[in-house]
Amino acid sequence: MKIIWIALVAGLTLLLIECALAQEKISPPQNATAAAMPDAPVPTPPASEKALSYYHSGNVLWLVENLWQIGVLMILLFSGFSARLRNWAGKIGKRWCFVVAVYFILFELLTTLLGLPLSYYSEFVREHAYGLSNQTFGKWFGDSLKSLLVQCLFGSLVVWLAYVPLRKSPRRWWLYVGLVTVPLLCLFMLIVPIWVQPLFNQFGPMKDKALEAKVLALAGRAGIAGTHVFEVNKSVDTKALNAYVTGFGGTKRIVIWDNTIAKLSEGELLFVLGHEMGHYVLGHIWKLILFNSTMILAALFFADRLAGLIIARYKTRLGFDQLSDIASLPLILLLCQLFGLCLITPVGNWMSRGIEHDADQFGLEITQANHDAATAFVKLQLENLSNPQPAPWFKIMRANHPVLGDRIDYANRYRPWATGEKLKYEEYFRREASK
Question: Which pTM value belongs to this model?
Fold first, then answer.
């Protein structure tokens, strides 16, 4: 129990730090007239009052959500309710494999229902209050139901794959489950772009064919042959901007939100896509799969070692005495979440920031459009209500991208081509688009 109390105290400490940093000063904007010149450095605008409010309330909400999840899992465990849920699943499922699936579905339904008020506030009420959402309540509720169904379907499969080795090899189950995450993540990468994402938004061909030709030409120059460009009607949900390259093999695709096309200039959009193509060309997808699999393996090892001690001490209250009992799922999730907050989150964010910086560098080198890159980041800051210079703890615990103030500065100054220096990624560039 000590580790749980440590996590709660750490969370409250973060809240106190955040309150102390709420008065942090934002540097004034640089000379605005300089930004009007095409080759002049683009100043980083200060965060607006609305952006700062969104930033601070978001930090509190992040803390509340983590404490809520930990609290719910603890209550389900130490009240013995998870064991009762297993008994109900046993009456419905009969055979073990069905008991696992039924338990997980009941567990997912229960936790979703308990978290519904918080989800409604964070995903719908708050986003509308800050003017970031176009989503109707019907669309939000419908998407939430679809997401729940997808989670029940795929979650049942994942939990079953985890508990089979738990029954067969209770000493090395964490190793086998960790190893199977690699093909699982690859499988999800194949099916999510085709079968899951279109459940929530309409994907279609790009409407501006002239712009599409330029996007495909840029993809060809980046060495991404045989790809397709999809425009998704994300404006029905949000006013935020985004684009990405996803999938591999036959599912490889460039996806651009329609509001991104509407709000960015052609040069800005091409830089953003150059950045996203950098992720694909530089193999960031595979690096993230390997990293995530390693972290899952470490988390499961941690859970295995600590779970035995907890079960031995509290088995009467828990209602089970073996980790292979499906009623132990909240315990495994709880320990993995604590491990994630202590190690995976800060390390993962650090790695992700490095990857995003490399993609920024790739995008700048392939487009050589410093001004467009910087103004694109400014628009992302303004449209997404971002804080360009957040608190240090935010960078560690929440920032999986370099902060926008740093990205704007980097876009302003990085131009090795201007002095004839060798480009870091020029070996990836092709003079002509692939046929």
Answer: 0.86
pLDDT by residue (tens digit) across 59-68? 999 999 999 9
DSSP states along 26-43: -PPP--HHHHTSTTSPPP
Non-local (6+) Cβ contacts of 162 within 8 A are 173, 177, 332
- 127-147 pLDDT, tens per residue? 999 999 999 999 999 999 999
The phi-psi region of residue 283 (left if phi > 0; otherwise alpha if psi is between -120 and 50; otherwise beta) is left
pLDDT at 310 over 90: yes
Q: Is 383 a catalytic site residue? A: no
Out of 127, 268, 276, 356, the active site residue is: 276
Nearest alpha carbon to residue 292 among 209, 223, 349:
349
Tell me the C-alpha distance between 392 and 72, whole Å: 29
Q: Which of 73, 170, 64 is CA-nearest to residue 121?
A: 64
The side-by-side arrangement of strands in the sheet containing 203-205 is 203-205, 228-232, 253-257, 243-246
